[in-house]
Specification:
Layout: H1 3-39, H2 46-64, H3 68-89, H4 99-120, E1 137-139, E2 143-145, H5 147-151
Antiparallel strand pairs: 1-2
Helix pairs in contact: 2-3, 2-4
C-alpha cells in the first residue's frame, strides 16, 4: 500500500474516531443541560454518575452474565434507583440552602463515587462484550476500515481510545 493511501486511511480512521468521541461529548453536554434545566443546579458529579452507570452495566455483563441489552438495562435501573435515593436523602434537604452548598455536595459526591467505584468494582472488567467483530472489514476500492475505528470498542486503561496501528513511512 502506498504512503498516500495509508495516510488517507489514517485520516479516515481519525475522522470516524473523532466523530464518535464528539458524539459522546455532545451526549454528556446534553446531560449537563438536562440536569440544569430540570433542577436549576449544576451537578459537577455528572461524570461520576456516567462512570457508575457504565460500571453497573459492565457488572451486569461480566459478573451476572447478562447479554448486552440486559446489561444496559441493569445499569439504567441501578442508576435510576441511585438517583432517586440521592434525591430523597441528600438533595431534598438542600432545597432552601444556598447554591454553593449544592455545588459543594455534588463535588463531594463525585469524590465519594470515585472511591466507592474503585473499591466495589475492582475485580470486574470495565468493558462490555459487543456483538461486533474486531476483524477488519474490507470495502470496495481496497479501502479497509477496522471495526475498532467504527465503534471504538477497545479502550486503554486510561479510557482513551486506541488508534489502529498504521504503517509509517
Amino acid at each position: 500500500m502506498s504512503s498516500s493511501a495509508s495516510e488517507g486511511l489514517l485520516f479516515f480512521a481519525l475522522v470516524i474516531n473523532g466523530g464518535l468521541a464528539g458524539a459522546i461529548y455532545a451526549l454528556i453536554a446534553l446531560a449537563f443541560v438536562l440536569v440544569y434545566k430540570a433542577s436549576r443546579m449544576i451537578n459537577f458529579a455528572l461524570g461520576e454518575w456516567i462512570m457508575f452507570g457504565s460500571l453497573l452495566a459492565s457488572t451486569g455483563s461480566n459478573a451476572i452474565g447478562l447479554d448486552l441489552g440486559g446489561a444496559v438495562l441493569f445499569g439504567c435501573v441501578g442508576m435510576a434507583l441511585l438517583g432517586v435515593a440521592f434525591n430523597a436523602i441528600v438533595l431534598g434537604r438542600l432545597v432552601t440552602r444556598p447554591v454553593i452548598s449544592v455545588i459543594m455536595v455534588t463535588l463531594g459526591l463525585g469524590a465519594l463515587m470515585r472511591g466507592v467505584a474503585a473499591f466495589c468494582f475492582r475485580g470486574v472488567p470495565s468493558a462490555l462484550t459487543l456483538p461486533v467483530s474486531t476483524d477488519p472489514v474490507s470495502v470496495s476500492c481496497r479501502l479497509t476500515i477496522t471495526a475498532y475505528a467504527c465503534c471504538s470498542a477497545r479502550r486503554r486503561r486510561t479510557g482513551s481510545p486506541r488508534l489502529p496501528h498504521w504503517p509509517t513511512r
